[in-house]
TrEMBL record:
Residues 383-461 form the Signal transduction histidine kinase internal region domain. One of its GO terms (cellular component) is membrane. The keyword Membrane applies. It comes from the Bacteria. InterPro entries: Bact_2-comp_sensor_kinase (IPR050640), HATPase_C_sf (IPR036890), Sig_transdc_His_kin_internal (IPR010559). GO terms for molecular function: phosphorelay sensor kinase activity. Pfam families: His_kinase (PF06580). The lineage of its organism: Bacteria, Bacillati, Bacillota, Bacilli, Bacillales. The keyword Kinase applies. It comes from Neobacillus bataviensis. Keywords: Kinase, Membrane, Transferase, Transmembrane, Transmembrane helix. The chain crosses the membrane at residues 16-39, 297-317. This is Two-component system sensor histidine kinase YesM.
Length: 583
């Protein structure tokens, strides 16, 4: 509510600008997010449909691949030569003829039509052979015994009439093949169903690379056999356990959005019914919404352009509407600072211009009357000083003091002569040839002469120090400002003490002079004494400063019982347009 009230109370110009900005911004802020969300869903569905179609094609290729391997195993399973070879128990020429016949049979079905087959093993406890299509055999003897010790043998024996896709990562029949894809089958006697031997088909995983080479798959493709990766186009960015855990227990196909290592990915997966392999497509989510991000960037750019155009138009219209109001506000600010309002004219074509011109006229008239009042008040104060000075004949005073000085010198009364000469200086500087303006240097000499006289009176119990910035010594100020304050410090603070200190500091500050007069006298309780009425001299100085220089100048007093008193005297460097009349 407070923010709303602040907006309502804002200037008219701001309201018009905000109206223009909100008119352009609110529709975009409302429509934009819903549009982005809608486009996100459309792009996600489009990508998901494309990937599903691709996975269906992959599924068909895997079915074809699986069917070819199964048909090959069926040919081996039903081969009379292979059955005869496995069931022949004697080692004689007949065994070698059967082995040769079996190998020729395998050559006919593997070399030309099935280049992805690396090797085929057929054997049992008695004998067996390893048919190599590519590479070099890794095992030479006791291959069947090695198979029996592997993790796939139990599955081979317990398999039904069909074959099994096996994970043979710990069974390497061919050197440097680094294969892990095997298809195995338990060869049985068709009549007795008894175990005759086994067949293992070693398959080259490059089949999958050839499958995806020209298909331009979307994202990274993984083919999993359980938690074992058969094919990975992602350069092992994803572990098999990670992917298997994500798709586990989610049905035969689907789409999942998941975060991995701080990055969101879009998972599409499909399980092949024949092999039970999972084909997974993994696409970074940012790639999917790339088009949406481009649209968002274009929209934001258009939004910024619209806001800039709206702001320019709003500023143009606002300037025409509020030009007179801005001018009036500038006038009121000048009036508040008591500045002279000159050279400002309102357009009289509307009522606001007429009011503005009338205000300027009344203010200038009132300002002129105020200046005249200040002049009269200053003249009144100066008249009081002149009335005091008129009672003293300067020539008589100087001659008398001069006589006292020479008489004291003749009698070698140094103290009396010093008092006479300092008193002569004080009166000379006070009268100042009838001029109310003096210099900082003269004021300090007057104070020094006064303190020298008081030290003669009080046996030098007053220590004084002056710290005055040299560059202000010739500055012109109204006279009798510092000496009355120092006299007040002596009379009220130090006269009844055994000793005391007076320190005077002076420097230029901003557009004026600042003097600090500090004494170590008795001090007083500022809560119990009305400072504005504390002494005619101080009150007179304060009023003269404010009348001559302005309200921001004058006296400030700080005091504490037992610690002394400090007076701050702020004097202007110019009279703020109030001209003094000496006549």
């Amino acid at each position: 509510m407070a923010k709303l009230m602040k907006l309502i109370d804002s200037p008219i110009k701001r309201k018009i600008i905000l109206l223009a900005l909100f008119s352009a911004l609110i529709p975009l802020l409302v429509i934009g997010p819903f549009t982005f969300i809608y486009f996100n869903k459309v792009i996600e569905n489009k990508v998901s449909t494309t990937i599903n179609n691709f996975l269906n094609i992959v599924d068909w290729n895997i079915n074809a691949f699986g069917s070819n391997v199964e048909n090959l195993s069926n040919g081996i399973f039903l081969s009379n030569e292979i059955h005869a070879y496995l069931t022949h128990k004697n080692i004689d020429p007949m065994l070698y003829r059967l082995e040769t016949s079996s190998l020729e049979n395998l050559n006919n079905i593997t070399v030309v039509n099935n280049p992805y087959i690396i090797a085929i093993y057929v054997g049992n406890d008695n004998h067996g052979f390893l048919k190599i299509n590519r590479g070099e055999r890794n095992l030479t003897n006791n291959i069947y015994q090695t198979i029996k010790k592997s993790n796939i043998y139990e599955r081979l024996l317990n398999s039904q009439w069909q074959g099994e896709w096996l994970n043979g990562s710990n069974l390497e029949l061919v050197k440097e093949s680094n294969h892990s894809l095997l298809y195995g089958r338990n060869i049985r006697d068709l009549g007795t169903k008894e175990h005759v031997g086994v067949v293992l088909i070693v398959l080259d995983q490059s089949y999958f690379e050839n499958m995806f080479k020209n298909s331009n798959p979307p994202g990274d493709i993984l083919v999993l056999d359980g938690d074992k990766i058969l094919f990975d186009s992602s350069n092992k960015r994803f572990s098999s356990s990670q992917v298997a855990k994500i798709i586990q227990g989610r049905g035969k196909s689907g789409t999942i959005k998941k975060e991995i290592n701080g990055t969101n990915y879009f998972f599409n997966y499909h399980t092949n019914k024949k092999t039970n392999w999972d084909v997974v497509s993994i696409i970074p989510y940012k790639n999917i919404v790339h088009e949406v991000n481009q649209l968002r960037l274009i929209t934001i750019t258009l939004l910024v352009i619209a806001l800039i155009v709206s702001l320019i138009i709003a500023l143009f219209i606002t300037r025409r509407i509020t030009n007179q109001l801005s001018l009036l506000r500038m006038v009121t600010e000048k009036m508040e600072k008591r500045e002279t309002v000159l050279g400002i004219h309102f357009n009289n074509e509307d009522e606001l211009g007429e009011i503005g011109n009338r205000i300027v006229h009344l203010y200038n008239w009132n300002n002129e009357l105020t200046k005249r009042l200040y002049k009269s008040q200053i003249k009144e104060k100066e008249a009081e000083l002149l009335a005091l000075q008129s009672h003293i004949n300067p020539h008589f005073l100087y001659n008398t003091l001069n006589t006292i000085f020479w008489m004291a010198e003749k009698l070698k009364a140094k103290q009396i002569s010093k008092i006479a000469i300092n008193l002569s200086k004080i009166f000379k500087l006070t009268l100042n040839d009838g001029n109310h303006i003096t210099s900082v240097k003269n004021e300090m000499e007057q104070v020094k002469s006064y303190l020298d006289i008081q030290n003669i009176r009080f046996d030098h119990k007053i220590d004084y120090t002056f710290t005055i910035d040299p560059e202000i010594m010739e500055e012109r100020i109204i006279k009798l400002l510092l000496q009355p304050i120092v006299e007040n410090s002596v009379y009220h603070g130090l006269e009844h003490q055994e000793s005391g200190i007076i320190m005077i500091e002076g420097k230029k500050q901003d557009d004026g002079l600042l003097f600090k007069i500090l004494d170590t006298g008795n001090g007083f309780n500022m809560n119990e004494v009305d400072i504005s009425n504390k002494g005619y001299a101080l009150k007179n100085i304060n009023e003269r400063l404010k009348l001559y220089y302005g309200k921001e100048y004058g006296l400030k007093i700080e005091s504490e019982i037992g610690k002394g008193t400090t007076v701050y005297l702020k004097i202007g460097l110019k009279n703020d347009g109030i001209l003094h009349d000496n006549n």
